[in-house]
Amino acid sequence: NIADNDLLLNEMVANMTGIADDGYEYVEIAGVANSIIPGGTYLAVFNGESTVTGGVGKADIVIDLGGKQIGSSGLLVVTPTNFKYSVPAATTRVIATQLDTVGGGISDDVLSFVLVYSPDDPVVQGTDYDTSVGTYVDDATPFLNDGVLDINPFVPLLGNRPGIFLDSVGSAEGPNGQADRVVSIVRPGVRVTIPDDHNVLGEVSRFCTDAFTRVNGDRQSNSTGAWYNGELNGATVIYSPGNFSSGRTPPGGQITPGDPNVPRGIAFSVTLVSVSETAGTVTLFVNRTGDNSIATSVQFATADGSALAGPGNDYTANSGLLSFGIGIDQQPIVITLNNDSNPEGFESFFVNLSNPGTPFALVNSQTKVTLADDDASVLTFQDGDLVGEYTGTRDVGLYGWLANDKLGGDLTMAIDRSDDDPTLSSDLEKPDQGLIRFDDLFGSGPGQVPIGSTIYGGFITFNVTDGSGVATRITLHRMLSSWNEFNASFASPAAGITDGVTYDDVEASVIPDGLVPNASLFGPQDVQLSVDTLQAWANQTATNNGWVIHNDTTNGWDFDSSDQIGPNLRPKLTLIYSAPSGNGTVRFAEPTFIVNEDAGTATLTVQRPGATTGTLLVNWAITGGTATGADYTGPTSGTVTFGPTDLSMPINIPIVNDPGLETNETLVVTLTGAGVNFTRNTTSLVIR
């Protein structure tokens, strides 16, 4: 007899993406070292493609393993005659001429690999073991077989001499359709799949993955959970991002015919680092895993983010080659930091890895280093942590298919776009949006950002529960109309919403305040916010109505709401600022102001965030642009006077409405002043 876990499928390569693969395909089997495989033990590769003559369930390849000995490594490899890889001496090699076919013998697009022990009923190559409904007729009626093997030795409940399924796993194209017709369907769900449009290294894989590898140490038979799979690229397997039945996708994987399945990877020990700008240096560690018996290397280089490299800037650029000698698993990267005394908020730069030495693969290739500004302050706001005067977070889903439902208490929010499916009702074609607002952020109370503070940055951390696609754009637009969490719906005129929120600079801003950097990721994700919006709220020149969240695709993006049971899962807002002091700083409120030529007057707002005492004089002048004296009147320069408590002041420029048709014209206005610290001293006025 043979126990179910005495013989297992361990690794297979079946290059099914149309690339010539003769000489590369193999099936690796794990067992007890030096044991003899009992007679009646078979490896069978089944056709699961419905559009092939013979139909689902045909045994394309059958190899009798009876009497073969497992190598001292605990492995046996079934290979073609002209095998392109070397097999260690400790591993048994079995040559199967069925794999010698030009283009590879394992060539179908939907397959199952099965190990079966059947001493009484031999498994015969070419036999269709799925006959319960019928066989393939033509392409017009392809799905006649039910995908269940129904004759001995594959029917333990019906046969008198049932076979024992030692192990099985299948591969299929996409999550639907033929994926359900894989012959490992004898054990439903035991399959790994790949999306129709999965792309790796420029190769569009319309069919299946190339390689299947059992997780090292996992001896669970007939289980998808024991497997991961990926695209074959030379000797390295590039693992898919998880869009298939098996979610276990350890990085650094490579095919290892005749060797244990040990992923070999190079990675940063952490991908996010925060360090004080006064620290002098920051040290990052790069680890290699899986195999330290050989030497290898990887290149590294810094890259600017909001923090800049160079003399007088934030850090000193660094690049080079990290070498790992035999037995060495970790190497450091040291980067010099440049401290300054100017409050500027938190800034960040990146360190990237590239060109790992063969046969290692990059596991995570980038670390983000954030420089904590000792001259700035930080406050966080998260519902459930109501410190001081902050009164909580408000959020609500606006779902087009539930237009009148008030969903302010939902635990998660789903952001989606219309499917534009003409078969759907008009309600179902409407998008799903979300509203979010953090109340009472600014004021003089404890736990609030002081009014008039200089804002250096801000971001919302969302806990994403369902990522979208890499190309998806999830944007946050400033809400310009007020709303109530418990009354708002997709169609709620009382909240100023009649058919969802419109991005028209009336209900919400056209230009987004924030963009999700990678909508495909799960877990905590930081979304940077517009400093202009946050500064306007700090100066009390605009009302905090929060944001509306928009998705430009039909691929949903979900996150935990402020009503989620776990407080640490709720959205969290982080603001970086310096409290008012002295003269503060001066800036135009917007980089561009727009006015219609029939408006009569254009008003440019000048802000003085961060000031508490003293009168301040700021000069302004028109310094360029395409507009002429026929387009505006009045002085071309002047002075703005801030009183001790003034946080914003206007510059008014009279505009002339002429009858002629003309293109938009511009004025460039510049601020100057002795001893004044400017953060935006130039703006553009567009006259349309």
What does this structure look like?
Mean pLDDT is 78; it is low at 50-54, 134-145, 156-162, 174-208, 233-251 and 419-428. This protein has 688 residues and is mostly beta strands. The N and C termini lie far apart (87 Å). The chain contains one helix and 43 strands.
- Total DSSP E strands: 43
Strand order of the largest sheet: 6-5-2-1-12-13-14
Rg estimate, integer Å: 33 Å
Task: Please work out how many helical segments DSSP would assign.
Answer: 1
Fraction of residues in β-strands? 35-45%
What would a concise description of this structure say?
This protein has 688 residues and is mainly beta.
What is the secondary structure topology, with strand pairs?
Blueprint (H helix, E strand, L loop, with lengths): L6 E7 L12 E6 L9 E7 L10 E7 L10 E5 L12 E4 L15 E7 L46 E10 L17 E4 L4 E2 L2 E2 L6 E4 L12 E7 L2 E4 L25 E4 L3 E5 L4 E9 L6 E9 L14 E6 L5 E7 L10 E8 L6 E4 L1 E7 L4 E6 L9 E8 L12 E4 L16 E8 L14 E13 L7 E5 L35 E2 L7 E6 L2 H8 L8 E5 L5 E4 L11 E7 L7 E3 L3 E4 L5 E7 L8 E9 L12 E6 L5 E7 L10 E8 L5 E3 L1 E6 L1
What keywords describe this structure?
688 residues, mainly beta, 7-stranded mixed sheet
